[in-house]
Design brief:
81 residues; alpha+beta; Alpha-Beta Plaits; 1 helix; 40% strand
Amino acid sequence: MAGSVRYQVRVRVQGELPEAWSHVLGGLLVAADPDGTTLVSGALADQAALHGLLAAIRDLGLSLISVETAAIPTPSPLGSS
């Protein structure tokens, strides 16, 4: 069986969110930029977690500016088939 896939994500939203919002957004890094936007970034366990993050952003009424993702294959443990 192939390894699972994790996602590295960088999501930019409109508005300057405080770092304390990290717990609301799945423990991801929350960094406000001087241009009035916030970058939310980090690793997510799977595609369901990615969809959950996007749903949380929607539910909070935040304006989504951009989403960048990169799939990170996780190798299977040795000896498993």
